[in-house]
Each structure stands twice: as C-alpha cells, then as structure tokens.
C-alpha cells in the first residue's frame, strides 16, 4: 500500500514541478509585487510599500472608469454574444444543404486572435477611411461621418460590437453541440401534447441545455473580463481613457510605465472581483446544475 | 505485465524530471565558448524588428562572420512589440547576450540597472569615430558616457501634398501659425479632405512637445529640454499656453475629428490615401510614400518654426551596445565597430530610410537630392533648427507619452482646458525633477 503511494507520488512529480514553476510561482510573485514598488526603470530599489499601490489605484479616476467600463464590457458583450450565439445555434440545428460550409463561415471568427480582430475593426471603424462609415453614408442612414472610436459616446459601444462579433461563434459552437444532444423523443412527446414551437424551446430545449448554458456563460464572462487584446488593438484605451477596462489598464501600466507594482495591484483586485462573481453565480444558478467543467 | 508497465512509467518520470531540472540549470553550460577551438559565439539581439530590417542586419552579420572566421554570431530577432521586454528578460535573468540594440527610450533604464557597458574606451581607439556626427554621439550618451553607437537617426520633417498646395496657390508653411492657416484652407470635410494629419493617439506628444518647444524657443535648456534656462518647466510659460491654443485650433479647424485616437499607422495612411495634406514624420515613411503615392503629388520641407523663428528638434535612434556581463567584450566591440563603419552604416541607412551617423555620408548624392535633402538642409542651419537632448534620463519618460496622450485627448474633447492641462504637465515634470535629485 505504501509502495503504491510512493509510486503515485513519484509519477506526479514532473507535472507538479511544471505546475509549480509556471502557475503558482508567477501567481505568488504577482501577489508579492502588488505590495512592492517594482518599476522596471529602477530594479535596484525594489521595496515593500504596503497598500500604496492599491490606494493609488482607487484614487485614480482612470481606474474607477475602467472598473465601470469592465462592468459594461462584460455585461453587454456576454448578453449579446449569448443571444446571437443561441439564435445561430438554433438555426444551424436544422439539416440543410451546405450546412457544414456555412458553419465554417460562421465559426471562423473564433479562430482569429483578439489583437488581429482589434486591428481589423480599427480600420473598419475609422471615420475618414473606414468601410462602416462609407456603407452608412451610401445607404443614406447617416449624413455626417461618425467617429466610432474617437467619440467617447461611441467608443465603448464600438469595442463591444467588435467583441460581440468575436464571441458569437464560441456560443454558437458550444450551444449547437448541446442542442444536438437533446433526444428527439422529447420533442415528439411535446408535439403530442400540442406544444407550440415557443413552448418546445422554453420547456424542452432550454432546460435540457441549461448546464451547458451555465458553464459557458460563467466561463465566457471570466474570459471577457480578463481579455484586453481587442481593446488594446482597437483603441488602446482611448480616447482619454474612455475605453479602458481593468485588464487593458493593467497592461497599460506595464507597457507604458514599466510599473509592475501598480499592475499587480490591479491584477489582485481583478482576482477578488472574479472570486465574488464566481461565488455569486454558482450560488444563484445552483452549482450542481452546472455539471463538471 | 503490470510490473513492467510500472517500471516503464517510473523510468519515464525519472527521465522527465531530470530533463526538467537540467533545463533549468542548463544556461551555465552554453555561456562559455561553445564549440571547439577558439571560436567565439556572440549572441546579438535587435529591438526595432521589421522583416526588411532584419534581413539587412542579417546580411551585415554574415559579412562580418566571413571577415572574422573565428567569431560566430547568433542573431536574435524578437517581434517588435515584445522585443524590449524580451531584452529586459534576458538581461534580468543573466542569459548570455553580448551585443544588443539599445534605444533612446531604453538606454537610461539599462544604464540605471547596470546592464550596459560604457563604450568610450573602445570608441577612442576606433579610427572612424571622428566622423560620427555630434548628434549621433549625443543620442547614445547618458551623462558623459557613450552607451551605444546609433545605427541611424530618425528626425522629423514635413511632408506635404504639393499638388493640393499648388492648386490652392499656397506655399509650404514655414511656421506653426502658417501651418495652421494653410491646413485650414485645405480643409473641406464635405470632400473628406483635411489639412493636417493629426495624431492624438499613441505618440501625440510628438506634436505637443514639438510645438511647446518651438514656441519657447531660446528659453529652453537644450540639455534638459523639459525645463527652461530658469529651471521652470517648459509647460509653465505663457509661450506654452500660446502653443496649446494653436494646437487646439489645429485639431478643431484643420484635422479629421477621428484623428484624436490616431497613431502612427492611421496618420500615415490618411496622408497616403489622400485624406490629409500635411504630415510631420520621420524619414522611415519615405519608402511607403514612394510606393503608394504618385511622383510629384508630394514633397518635403523642413520643420516649421515657432514665433521666434526657431524649431527645436531631437534626433531619435537606436544602436548597438554591449552588455556589462558579456564575456567577449573585445569581439563584441569588433562587431559593433563593423556594423557602425561608414560603409555598412551608410548602406544600411539608405536601404532602410534613416539618416546615416557619419558626417562623411552626407556627401553621398543620395542624401543631397530627393526627400532626404531637407534633413541635410536643416542640419546646415543650426541656428534655426536647434538640436535638443530629449529627457530620457528621467524615469518618467516612458510614461510621458501616455500621460500627454490621455490628458491631451481630454483637452481635445473639451473635458478640460488648456490651463489645467498645462498645470498637470508642469506638475509631472516638476515631480520628475525632484525624483531625479533624490
């Protein structure tokens, strides 16, 4: 029995080493740095400063704005991605000619890197030479060019639109897979009972795929919250910080300030927010329904 | 059967573990002379990576290796966006690195952390050092020590649509005020045409600082350019306010509204695609202008001056330095000297679109005609086009671009006014000064 345990433990060592080195060490280091003055410019005077980095963050109007923006960013991106994704999945569930090819076209956005998507949309949104303004002008829907990324009223909406475009495919893929597992007998039974298509959707389909919905939205919300790439590529947080979310602000602190202390503090605040979010979400949706993931 | 499997698994685990540990400690082995005999391997890294540039540098390195059969050069080209971080990581983790590309933006940081070696002792013995221009030396110098030999300089000049100006019967502007007036006349939003290729996004301080420096003119302390000769910041003067008032007008009356968030790419793209008429940029855009625009539609002119008739300009650049931990400094210098020689540097500058570092190179026909000519003309009039030293020694320079961009955008969006913005900038540099004195 003991021999068995030794064997198991020794078998785990390589994986354990890797996990410790590449997951837990950076994590602990990040926590430590949040309480230090740790600037690339002056690595010789790294020292502990207590809660200064956190105080500085909460006194910074940019941080407060980013906190607020993170809320909008996650909420609207998630809801819209989910709704469009579900619609697409329902449409793709039916057999029709060329479905495979069509699926490929629908899903390809998921295969692009977020940064690249940011770059592409940046040119499309450009008010002088961008295609979106051109189309709207030619259709006669607008008479003056709109500064999608330069007008703070529009900028946050624009980055969310790009993000929705990116994430719809993810929900479509996941929900389609779940939909295909709904047994057809259930629908047959529902038809026998005289259910309308809305009732079928509401009382059969949705309850059946609920675990997938919970798991995907929970995961996706965390990804959206953490992912700065689209914003970094599109607006870099501008104009005047009006499109910064927490993760892009964190990146900004590192890239332009070399200030790892301030960035780590923001990182920790993000972790705390996510922790609360997860606890809240799991308790409202009753964790056991979410299944194993 | 099961036993055999167990033995196999244990063996595999042992091998993987040993492999992992060996991987962690392996760096000592290859830091010495690798390979046999006296062959020395130098590791060299570039920062401003772009496919064409990498190719040019690789060609020079190959030439160097052919001339020095006992030296092998391992050339690392990380992608531009990550290059400086990669260099920092390598330096911080004591990985072997001998020759590195240091930028004006990073030199103070590297010196501060003790990563790079002063080159004066080597340069004194170098026969071609005499022809290295004073500006080039100044770019690579921190305090009184030379830390890198630039591989070419970037200097701002004006590009304008010669055809538009001719059509409107205008001359290329020579002052900021004229630039504003000319740009305003060229602007016609109905035709999606604007006078000035404004840049309010990343790098916006290129415009704001240039204007404020030009307006302050003689008041500026050229060695400590964020401050006047009286020791106040350049943002605290009435001239700074005049400059910013004009800056605001330039954006509102003569630039695309969208340009508040534009960076380098959009700014240049707007010019090449015929949306904007005047562009202030470095010579590295010349090639893309030549490729995308018809000959004769555009021309170059010197930088515009402030009200006192002066334009302050800084040369930017990157160049080759040697790490302080290098074990092969002599060989590393040999490589730096080769890359910086008049022949190699002039060819590289021509091919990539930079100003060569040797004064002798300006004799070349290539730089006497065409779009580069205005830059040489500017050098010939040092009283009008005054060279200043950018404030790279301050820890806050790296963040300065971001600070000006954000507060500048608030100003352009009418969320704040010129006085408050300048107060903020004044406080930023006053604070930098006290930090530096500590």
Automatic annotation (TrEMBL), chain A:
<feature type="domain" description="ABC transmembrane type-1">
    <location>
        <begin position="67"/>
        <end position="281"/>
    </location>
</feature>
<keyword id="KW-0813">Transport</keyword>
<feature type="transmembrane region" description="Helical">
    <location>
        <begin position="260"/>
        <end position="284"/>
    </location>
</feature>
<keyword id="KW-1133">Transmembrane helix</keyword>
<keyword id="KW-0812">Transmembrane</keyword>
<comment type="similarity">
    <text>Belongs to the binding-protein-dependent transport system permease family.</text>
</comment>
<dbReference type="InterPro" id="IPR000515">
    <property type="entry name" value="MetI-like"/>
</dbReference>
<keyword id="KW-0472">Membrane</keyword>
<feature type="transmembrane region" description="Helical">
    <location>
        <begin position="104"/>
        <end position="124"/>
    </location>
</feature>
<protein>
    <submittedName>
        <fullName>Sugar ABC transporter permease</fullName>
    </submittedName>
</protein>
<feature type="transmembrane region" description="Helical">
    <location>
        <begin position="201"/>
        <end position="225"/>
    </location>
</feature>
<feature type="transmembrane region" description="Helical">
    <location>
        <begin position="154"/>
        <end position="180"/>
    </location>
</feature>
<feature type="transmembrane region" description="Helical">
    <location>
        <begin position="72"/>
        <end position="92"/>
    </location>
</feature>
<keyword id="KW-1003">Cell membrane</keyword>
<dbReference type="Pfam" id="PF00528">
    <property type="entry name" value="BPD_transp_1"/>
</dbReference>
<dbReference type="InterPro" id="IPR035906">
    <property type="entry name" value="MetI-like_sf"/>
</dbReference>
TrEMBL record, chain B:
<dbReference type="InterPro" id="IPR050490">
    <property type="entry name" value="Bact_solute-bd_prot1"/>
</dbReference>
<dbReference type="Pfam" id="PF01547">
    <property type="entry name" value="SBP_bac_1"/>
</dbReference>
<protein>
    <submittedName>
        <fullName>Sugar ABC transporter substrate-binding protein</fullName>
    </submittedName>
</protein>
<dbReference type="InterPro" id="IPR006059">
    <property type="entry name" value="SBP"/>
</dbReference>
<keyword id="KW-0732">Signal</keyword>
<feature type="signal peptide">
    <location>
        <begin position="1"/>
        <end position="22"/>
    </location>
</feature>
């Amino acid at each position: 029995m003991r021999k068995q345990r030794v064997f198991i433990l020794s078998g785990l060592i390589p994986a354990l080493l890797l996990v410790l080195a590449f997951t837990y060490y950076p994590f602990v280091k990040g926590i430590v740095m949040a309480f230090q003055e740790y600037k690339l410019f002056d690595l010789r005077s790294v020292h502990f400063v207590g809660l200064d980095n956190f105080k500085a963050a909460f006194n910074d109007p940019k941080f407060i704005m980013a906190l607020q923006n993170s809320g909008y960013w996650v909420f609207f991106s998630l809801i819209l991605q989910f709704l469009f994704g579900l619609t697409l999945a329902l449409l793709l569930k039916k057999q029709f000619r060329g479905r495979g090819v069509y699926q490929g076209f629908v899903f390809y956005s998921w295969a692009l890197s977020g940064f690249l998507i940011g770059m592409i949309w940046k040119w499309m949104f450009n008010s002088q030479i961008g295609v979106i303004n051109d189309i709207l002008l030619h259709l006669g829907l607008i008479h003056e060019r709109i500064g999608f990324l330069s007008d703070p009223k529009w900028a946050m909406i624009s980055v969310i639109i790009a993000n929705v475009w990116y994430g719809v495919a993810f929900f479509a893929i996941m929900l389609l897979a779940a939909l295909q597992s709904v047994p057809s007998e259930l629908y047959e039974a529902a038809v026998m009972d005289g259910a309308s298509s809305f009732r079928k959707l509401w009382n059969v389909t949705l309850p059946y795929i609920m675990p997938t919905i919970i798991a995907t939205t929970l995961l996706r919300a965390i990804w959206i919250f953490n992912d700065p790439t689209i914003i970094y590529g599109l607006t870099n947080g501008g104009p005047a910080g009006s499109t910064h979310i927490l993760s892009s602000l964190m990146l900004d602190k590192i890239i332009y300030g070399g200030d790892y202390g301030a960035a780590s503090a923001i990182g920790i605040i993000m972790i705390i927010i996510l922790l609360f979010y997860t606890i809240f979400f799991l308790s409202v949706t009753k964790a056991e329904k979410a299944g194993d993931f | 059967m099961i036993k055999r499997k167990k033995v196999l698994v244990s063996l595999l685990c042992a091998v993987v573990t040993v492999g992992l540990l060996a991987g962690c400690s392996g760096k000592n082995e290859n830091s010495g002379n690798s390979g046999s005999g006296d062959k020395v391997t130098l590791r060299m890294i570039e920062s401003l990576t772009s496919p064409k540039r990498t190719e040019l540098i690789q060609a020079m390195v190959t030439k160097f290796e052919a001339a020095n059969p006992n030296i092998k050069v391992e050339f690392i080209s990380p992608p531009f966006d990550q290059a400086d971080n990669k260099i920092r990581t390598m330096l911080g983790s004591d990985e072997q690195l001998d020759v590195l590309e240091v930028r004006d933006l990073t030199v103070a940081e590297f010196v501060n952390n003790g990563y790079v070696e002063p080159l004066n002792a080597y340069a004194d013995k170098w026969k071609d050092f005499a022809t290295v221009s004073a500006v080039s030396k100044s770019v690579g110098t921190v305090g009184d020590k030379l830390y890198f030999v630039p591989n070419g300089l970037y200097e701002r000049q004006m590009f304008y649509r010669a055809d538009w100006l001719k059509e409107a019967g205008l001359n290329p502007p020579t002052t900021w005020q004229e630039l504003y007036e000319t740009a305003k006349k060229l602007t016609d939003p109905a035709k999606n045409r604007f006078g000035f290729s404004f840049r309010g996004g990343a790098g916006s301080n290129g415009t704001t600082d240039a204007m404020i420096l030009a307006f302050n003119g003689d008041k500026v302390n050229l060695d400590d350019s964020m401050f006047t000769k009286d020791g106040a910041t350049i943002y605290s003067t009435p001239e700074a306010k005049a400059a910013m008032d004009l800056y605001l007008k330039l954006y509102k009356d003569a630039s695309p509204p969208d340009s508040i968030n534009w960076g380098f790419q959009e700014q240049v793209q707007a010019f090449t695609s015929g949306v904007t008429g005047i562009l202030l940029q470095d010579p590295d855009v010349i090639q893309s202008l030549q490729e995308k625009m018809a000959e004769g539609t555009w021309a170059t002119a010197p930088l515009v001056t402030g009200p006192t008739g002066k334009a302050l300009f800084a040369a930017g650049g990157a160049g080759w330095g040697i790490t302080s931990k290098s074990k092969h400094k002599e060989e590393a210098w040999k490589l730096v000297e080769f890359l910086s020689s008049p022949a190699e540097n002039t060819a590289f500058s021509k091919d990539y679109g930079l100003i060569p570092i040797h004064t002798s190179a300006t004799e070349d026909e290539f730089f006497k005609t065409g779009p580069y000519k205005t830059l040489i003309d500017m050098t010939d009039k040092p009283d009008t086009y005054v060279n200043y030293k950018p404030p790279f020694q301050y820890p806050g320079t790296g963040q300065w671009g971001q600070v000006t961009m954000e507060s500048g955008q608030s100003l352009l969006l009418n969320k704040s006014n010129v006085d408050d913005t300048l107060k903020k900038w004044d406080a930023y540099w006053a604070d930098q000064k006290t930090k530096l004195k500590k």
